[in-house]
Write a structure and sequence with these properties.
By secondary structure, the chain is of the alpha/beta class. Helix content is 25%, strand content 20%. The strands form four sheets. It has a four-stranded parallel β-sheet, sandwiched between helices. A two-stranded antiparallel ribbon has the order 2-3. Helix 3 crosses helix 4.
Length: 198
């Protein structure tokens, strides 16, 4: 049988002169666990590099549209904050400025796949990117802006930080998992959907 081909959006280490390795270079990477999760389901995983940057050739036909034509679906990965300017706000703290370059790349990638009616899954930051691209907003920091919320990030245990998640009756997840009403979800984020986009 033909295996499905899924793209994974790249995370960025932007050019950083003091960095000990790859000094002054921009790196693009994916998280191993996301690739392995797809591969365990017999899906070929491909990182989709950003076609933009100082080393780009203007004549290249390797665009986000070309990737969307070739791949069956897309996973938008977790990582850096979404830039608050994307949803009409200013960063409440300098460290919450986000990554405007990655936002632009992932929103273009999302739209390319949506235009072709191909599935997109947003994991952590990826879900937030989808919401912002669809006109929604985010809490810049759950701890300070939604103090009633559960603890969604604990640096000491990182991806092992978990909380219970319930499926709303009649929702897509409830239909996908009819035998489940409550599941355990790991959580490593400090931002979250505030106003839901389209």
């Amino acid at each position: 049988p033909t295996m499905l081909k899924a793209g994974i959006s790249a995370s960025f280490f932007h050019s950083d002169q003091p960095r000990a390795i790859f000094q002054g270079m921009t790196l693009q990477y994916i998280e191993q666990n996301v690739a392995h999760w797809l591969m365990q389901r017999d899906v070929l995983a491909f990182m989709v590099p950003s076609p933009d940057g100082r080393t780009r050739r203007a004549s290249s036909t390797a665009t986000v549209d070309a990737y969307a034509d070739e791949l069956d679906g897309l996973v938008l990965m977790g990582g850096s904050d979404v830039c608050p300017e994307r949803y009409g706000e200013h960063a409440l703290k300098p460290e919450w400025r986000g990554d405007a370059i990655r936002d632009r790349y992932e929103i273009a990638l999302l739209r390319a796949f949506m235009d072709r009616r191909k599935p997109v899954l947003g994991v952590c930051r990826g879900a937030q990117v989808i919401n912002v691209a669809q006109g929604g907003t985010l809490y810049q920091d759950l701890c300070t802006q939604a103090p009633h919320a559960l603890n969604h990030r604990n640096w000491a245990i990182y991806e092992q930080n978990c909380h219970a998640t319930s499926f709303a009756p009649g929702s897509g997840l409830a239909r996908l998992y009819p035998e489940k009403t409550l599941v355990k979800t790991n959580s490593i984020h400090h931002q979250a959907v505030k106003e839901l986009g389209r």
